[in-house]
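Hi, can you check this record?
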Amino acid sequence: MPKVAVVMGSRSDMEVMQAAVDALAKMGLESEILVMSAHRQPEKVHAFCTSARDKGFEVIIAGAGAAAHLPGVIASWTTLPVIGVPIPSSDLKGVDSLYAIVQMPAGVPVATVAIGTPGAKNAGYLAAQILGLKYPDVARAYENLRTEFKGN
């Protein structure tokens, strides 16, 4: 099965990022949770990014608050798809994080979802859509989930 890395800059971000882990698990997708800061541990981020593909990761979901550089830094070091989740961790309630993540320069894309828990859930669903292009079982699991949504 494909693996998704769920990365965040601080353990406190897990409150939001758990929604991505749960969305992935609901579709039978394995994820690995990693905590590393683009500002406090740039060497760790670099080492992860340059070895992520070799470790079997196919999509990276990265949550970050405030200056929110983590998703962009990750995207600068890998060509794997990166999905950025703005974390509402500052007085600006995540708007600053949204702007930081969504304003990537051309050539270094980061797919950006909504602020907070709804965005984290959508990051998991988007990762499944991406993986579903290669893995029919993942595509079916996501399609089944969408059918469940229609019933609510």
Summary: The chain has one domain: 3-151.
